[in-house]
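Journal club prep — side note

Before the paper discussion, L.F. wants everyone to see what a predicted structure for a comparable chain looks like in token form. Sequence:
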Amino acid sequence: MKRKLIAALMTTALMGSVFTGCAQGDVEPAPETGEQPVAEKPADEQKEEPATSEEKQTLDVAVFEGGYGRAYWDAVAEAFEKQNPNVDVVINANPEIGEIIRPDLLSGNAPDFIYLPTTNKSGVTNALIKDKLLADISDVFEDPAIKDKILPGFIDNVATSPYGDGKVYLAPLYYSTTGLFYNKTVFEQNGWEVPVTWDDFYALGDKAKEKGRALITYQGLAPGYMEAMLIPAMVASVGPENFEKALNYEDGAWEQEGIVKAMEQVAKMSTNNYLMEGTVALSHTQAQQQWLKGDALFIPCGSWLEGEMAESPREDGFEWGFTAPPVMNAEDTKYVFTTFEEMFIPADSDQIDLAKEFLKFQYSDEAVALNAEKAKGIPPVKGAAEQLKQYVSGATYETYKLFDQGYEPTIVRFASVQGTELDPRTELFNQVAPVVSGEMSAVEWAAYMENISNSVRDYVVK
């Protein structure tokens, strides 16, 4: 019988979270499918007897139907059923799946398995995390068959283990890497090497200036795109554990020497015309368009950039190129800011063991191949980029190959705060414009963030 964890909380914590939760942004939804949610069973039919060897088990799967579509989920359900003849996998996919399953969650009739990113506008996943209503799936990733396949850094991070208890509650699926995009043709024509260190980066900027190009632009009115450069620089400079201190607002963490040095590298864009003129006033598409036309060598973005600008004009001979952001020293561990979309199992599921088997199947060779073919996406599995190669462009393929070349993902999450209007992440990136305009120094930027930390420390959600 399905447990009533969520229903029991209807008048307490969940009323303030699952009902009203919201998140940052959303994946661009696919067209509405017209599919309706599975009807809730009458109360007297909800009790289920254990299946006999002849009876089929039903696995209810709720899927966010966004940019990756639903074709993969139909295909992987069929493949899983072939391997498990006693199982029927019922896929309920919809762009509004968060809202569709909300009543089921409240009634204690939760789906058995859910793919719904934390960034989804419904806020349902974040609410379930907050109220600790997700099943512990640590044993899935302790299975040697799975543990040895997952790329380093994608488990045991704040995104998969949100409570810091060493347990895994969210499983990584589609991941996106960010870095610097460039025009390969321009580099080949000028005999330029892609920079590895910050010194290389700015030395190239001097050469670019001679050719009438700025070194870099970014999406000025959406400064959060600069996370592609700033976050890896700070992590490489102080190490993941010390950067976690800043994300958790520990006293003095934002003024660590390494963080200030990383900020100084960003601040250097304000000198010698390294930053494309007018950048801070441009929308994300305007900046990306000027970059495509050749006004700047680099722009920070994620693997979605090519698709987003597919129909935009560009300079003659343009060829997509992608590289990781620069580091202080060539020998430093090189990090790439990475995000992923999550799968999870509600604690209210009455098929947790079966759902875990379905979760394991998502990382199988068969499922990875299906995902590449049907959705042009892959989970963070070793060698999976090769499965994707035939379905995506060379530049997109390169964004996935970085992890096979020794780069490590940096997956960060600012500690959540409530009861204050301050959003520390927003405050961090809102200072990019004055810094790259020369109005604020790196030291002042770090001090500003330290003040923000002091202001929100007492509002951290425990």
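L.F.'s comment for the group: The chain is about 35% helix and 15% strand. Keep this in mind when we get to the figures.
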